[in-house]
Amino acid sequence: MSPEHRHTQPVDTRRVDAREKVTGAALYATDLHPDQLAHATLATATIGRGRIADLDVSAAAAVPGVLLVLSHLDHLDLQSPGFVMGGGYGVQSLQPLLDDRIAYRGQAIALVVAETLTAATEAANLVRARYETEPFAATLDSPGVERIAQPTAIPLPFLADIDVGDAESAYAAAPLHVDATYDQPAQHQNPMELIGATVWWRGDTLIVHEGTQSAGAIRHGLAQQLAIDAANIEVISPYTGGGFGQKNSLQIHIAPLALAARRIGRPVKLVVSRTQLFHHTSFRPASRHRIRLGADEHGRMVAAIHEVEHQTSRHDLFPLMYNEITARLYGIRDFRGRQTFARMDTQTPGFMRAPFEHPAAFAFESAVDELAYAANRDPLEFRLANDTTVDPVSGEPFSSRHLAQCLRRGAKTFGWSARRQRPASMRAEDGSLVGWGVAVGAYPASIVPATSHVVAGADGRVRVEVDGHEMGQGIRSTIALLVAEDLGIDVRHVDIVVGDTRVATQHLTAGSWGTASALGAVHAALRELRKQLGADVGGPVDVSAAVRAASRDTVEARAATLGPGQTEQDGERARQGHPVIAGPEFPGYSTFSWIAHFVEVRVEPTTCRIRVPRVVSVADCGRVASPVTAASQVRGGIVWGIGASLREAGEVDPRYGGFLNASLEEYPVPVNADIGTLDVDFIGEPDLRFHPVGVKGLGEVSMVGVAAAVANAVYHATGVRHRRLPIRIEDVLAGATA
Ligand code: MOS
Q: Which listed residue (122, 465, 470, 700) is catalytic?
């Protein structure tokens, strides 16, 4: 039964903000149009690296309607926000517009503010820069890339190499081997809501509206950049039109916008264009994975070595965490993981949905498929035979792991038993080659400090103010459903406020920890509320009657929760806008979400066009807190996995640096016509060891393993193994004629 059929509420109660969103009533940050609004655009650098020898903004400033042109010539009074993964708040440590250095193509060189967007855009095009260029490196193979082992650069325990047993010896002794290298290109989030902000000053208070995953980081980062008190900054982000990791920290335009708004004494809005987006903010770094796997003659995997490098900028070290899941997918005793930075001349890359797990699973699960074929075993049976209940890294149990159940249920739904093992042995009626592939995925369960404030009213409504950001994943629905179920009230009587620093800290929402963190805090506040309402025995609550019985208009409760093993110091760091993350190893156990994907591809034999008519995915995310939004999350993850495997790549410009295909015309993502049947199912077993209401996390695991399942299906269809993403028609054609 699909999740849609399990619940019987009317549609509008399942996704509580659906009506606002589809009617346009939901206002996103740059939908705002305050009085006296001025419009900003950016002028950007056209060289790969060097310095600005001469900047001429006079023609720009002379465009009618231009109010202000800000550049390094103005000696802006701004500090670096620091890099979010280096103890700071920013998408990168480099704050453009402060000096004449150009670190990467597309770096902002001027901010133009005008009465209209048209005037600002015209003026930005008239900003003239003369550069002194320097050699740059923009791909993993470019001369000048600087490589550093991660443990040398950042000696922190959670970024250490993984060494369990003696993988090199076990690999050497194994009778069956795979040794292959897999390439993942740079990729770019293209959320529907472009990055942008509307900012203004109310006296000494700075008001920032920006679609973000971390209003708290923006608030505290701006305080540092502008040297003002965080108490004088309000960051408001009720909706984010797609985060996917790109909106997880303070963007580089916000502080200059704040300065501009102060100078002209008016609100200012900036929407970063689709093309500029590719160079303005973080992206998925290119990575290269060498996987060595060894198995014994019974098809038992005995050794795995996963060596990976990924690109980072010259100015920041975006950490690598690829081994974290590959070491846990199977019960492989001897595991060795090595992670290396490749520093080059781009903006700092960052988190993009399943940032490490998707490329890692593509590489590792492709290699597992190769090994299954080397062992002449069915790839599904091979995976089931290598399952584990113990975390091979920590030696502790997993708090829950229903991966084998995901595989078995998915195989049944998909009809896997009808598969022929031999590649290129299945055909459709139209002559297309048919391939069936399977792969698994995992994603660490994490939890972060969260605060929640619950207000029950005499009118029977319950208002919940909580740490968390709504970025399309449906966190409002998830929270509202929990409150409604807990108190036995109608979900339409629950109001949720998220993404607002006026009501809560607003820790970063990312890493698929949003639901677990917010629900933990709301669950705790509800326990307190029940006490105050005299309803702590459980059961449904007549909220209106209980509040009136207390002779009050409202009854309030608050909770501040921490992840397992976190301390009050962690809570304080979170209140300062820093990410403070617990997991996936907790005292006594480890927690991951799991998923299995089954993919059918059809390869048209003449053109080698690849179609994906159907996918079956079964997830173990603990309790399914909100069935409708959960199923949507997984569908979105599958679609993204299909895009990652067949479409998406940032094409690096070897002449001038940066990305050539910086538009949706040239950076194709899947459209409806590319997507067939997506069958999504959940195990739904609550993980109460990890979490008070049993949720783990879902958003990112949904994508993990999809690309490998597609690549494995293409291999099964054609007999040719593709180890570089995306797999394009020309690659399959080359394989077919080789
Ligand atoms: Mo997610 S890529 O951690 O926002």
A: 700
